[in-house]
Amino acid sequence: MQSALYGSGEEIRVLLRTPPVAVQQSPPATRAEFYDLIMDMSYNRAEARTLNTFTKIGRLAYYFRKDDVIERDGRRSWQPARRVLERRPYLDTPISRTRWKS
């Protein structure tokens, strides 16, 4: 299918496969690195603000989604938040901060 705005599906796939030069030279990101960024952002907020970690997490998610489009024919590699939260109802329970020492 040809789109005047975006071109053919194959042209779009080629564009999605061509990340910026800095990304091309880096090894592919892993889900473990995604986890590391989330945990550090949660427990080291001052540095996370300095490093603009939340934006970097969003960018990393963007590249994971591009992989889904290219490698998985657009199928998502993640579960909907609703499904995860239904399996883990304890996430709605308030946390008592007095028990945790960090």
Structural class: mainly alpha
Approximate strand percentage: under 5%
Distance between the termini: 55 Å
Largest sheet: 2 strands, antiparallel
Number of DSSP-assigned strands? 2
Helix content: 55-70%
Strand order of the largest sheet: 1-2
Radius of gyration: 18 Å
N-to-C SSE string, H for helix and E for strand: EEHHHHHH
Q: Mean pLDDT score, rounded?
A: 77
Q: Any idea what the shape is?
A: flat
Number of helices: 6
Features:
disordered N terminus, 102 residues, mainly alpha, flat
What features would you describe in this structure?
- This protein has 102 residues and is mainly alpha-helical.
- The protein has one domain.
- It is 58% helix and 4% strand.
- It has six helices and two strands.
- The chain has a two-stranded antiparallel ribbon.
- A hairpin with a 3-residue loop joins strand 1 and strand 2.
- Helix 3 crosses helix 4 and helix 3 packs antiparallel against helix 5.
- The longest helix has 19 residues.
- The radius of gyration is 18 Å and the shape is flat.
- The N terminus is likely disordered.
